[in-house]
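sry for the spam today, last one i promise. struct tokens for design, 420 residues
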């Protein structure tokens, strides 16, 4: 039986840091309230304020009110935040993994743990204000009131400001756990970052990912090894590739792109195919929840009505339906971008393999099943040509991130890949 940190693959340093903090937090709860009712946690939090460099004498021993989990997608930012939340709510204060505190936190039913998963492209100010307000209440379980914000880099500026106020003057038993790709000012405002302790996660090595797929998911070792390499350190993606035939087919189609680029027309066709595949994948991922939400709202509103106030109720209902449609559209856009980005990461892996082979570097390929194609590409394009193509893929990702219309960015990339 592993504890709550068992799911964190290849993150020994971060886990050690979180274990120390959880132990310190548990000691805090056991300690008598100090004179004047002042919380020791405030002193500890102040100790870390404005200290972005290496921590002083006793790094990571303390507990504080606000944390940022950073790392590349799939490194386990939200897994780490949830595990830490469980350790804080654990009745033994360790994150044993089996007590009610651990269990309800990990299954998302703990009354004092709130998880914000932005569905659209950003987290709005109203959502954040409501959250901050609820987070200020005393924890019902007597331990900690915890707010986990996934993709904190998608906070709007106003939402960030609402959050900052709460982090600057945190209620004594409230803990904020933010997840973001990095602490770069593009991802997290400098002022929020300065109030938080950072837990850096690294891209787990393929061997560690494969090991957890075999041990926990019962996946055959050869499949696990292939999937872990192909997923480039993204644990969830590796698991999907190992288990889901449709995910494998989509990946195969993406990796077929380089050999299909035989002319301008083929480049535009490949761009259309990539965009449409991302749209189809995204649509499939949201169709069930969209339908369930619409049905639930229609049931809640009742079907029609003729009594007094019915006309006003109808107007209100129309507004709520419109709001729902807006939210669903935003979520669909996000799902499309995510699907397209996964495809671009796969494609980047292919050209990276070509570079490695052109340079005869003693490094394992990302995509073992297309290694011979990458090798042929390496001979044809040489290292420089392969690098230019890799850069075209990375530029496409950056352009979409900067809100260039995906079709425009992908068409430009396909043309660049064809021309070299
Ligand atoms: Zn526990």
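last one done:
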């Amino acid at each position: 039986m592993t504890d709550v940190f068992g799911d964190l693959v290849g993150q020994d340093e971060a886990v050690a840091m979180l274990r120390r903090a959880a132990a310190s937090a548990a000691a805090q709860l056991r300690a008598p309230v100090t004179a004047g009712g002042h919380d020791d946690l405030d002193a500890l939090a102040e100790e870390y304020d404005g200290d972005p460099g290496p921590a002083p004498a006793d790094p990571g021993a303390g507990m504080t009110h606000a944390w940022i989990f950073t790392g590349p997608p799939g490194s386990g930012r939200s897994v780490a935040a949830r595990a830490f939340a469980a350790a804080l709510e654990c009745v033994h204060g360790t994150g044993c993994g089996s007590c009610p505190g651990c269990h309800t936190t990990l299954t998302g039913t703990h009354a004092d743990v709130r998880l914000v998963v932005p569905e659209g492209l950003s987290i709005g100010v109203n959502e954040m204000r409501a959250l901050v307000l609820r987070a200020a209440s005393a924890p019902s379980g007597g331990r900690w009131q915890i707010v986990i914000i996934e993709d904190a880099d998608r906070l709007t500026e106003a939402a960030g400001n609402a959050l900052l106020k709460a982090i600057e003057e945190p209620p004594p038993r409230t803990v904020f756990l933010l997840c973001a790709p990095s602490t770069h000012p593009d991802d997290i405002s400098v002022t929020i970052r300065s109030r938080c302790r950072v837990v850096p996660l690294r891209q787990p090595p393929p061997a560690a990912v494969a090991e957890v797929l075999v041990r926990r998911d019962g996946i055959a070792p050869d499949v696990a090894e292939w999937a872990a390499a192909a997923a480039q350190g993204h644990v969830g993606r590796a698991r999907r590739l190992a288990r889901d035939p449709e995910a494998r087919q989509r990946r195969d189609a993406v990796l077929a792109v380089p050999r299909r680029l035989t002319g301008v027309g083929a480049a535009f066709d490949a761009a259309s195919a990539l965009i449409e595949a991302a749209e189809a994948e995204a649509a499939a991922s949201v169709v069930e929840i969209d339908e369930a939400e619409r049905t639930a709202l229609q049931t809640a509103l009742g079907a029609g009505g003729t009594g007094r106030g019915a006309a006003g109720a109808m107007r209100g209902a129309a507004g709520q339906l419109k709001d729902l449609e807006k939210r669903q559209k935003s979520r669909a856009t996000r799902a499309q971008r995510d699907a397209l980005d996964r495809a671009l990461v796969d494609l980047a892996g292919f050209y990276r393999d070509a570079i490695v082979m052109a340079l005869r570097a003693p490094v394992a390929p990302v995509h073992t099943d297309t290694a011979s194609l990458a090798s042929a590409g390496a001979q044809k394009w040489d290292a420089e040509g392969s690098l230019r193509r890799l850069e075209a893929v990375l530029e496409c990702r950056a352009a979409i991130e900067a809100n260039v219309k995906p079709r425009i960015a992908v068409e430009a990339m396909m043309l660049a890949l064809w021309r070299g």
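Residues 90-92, 95-96, 99, 101-102 surround zinc ion (CB under 6 Å). ok im logging off now
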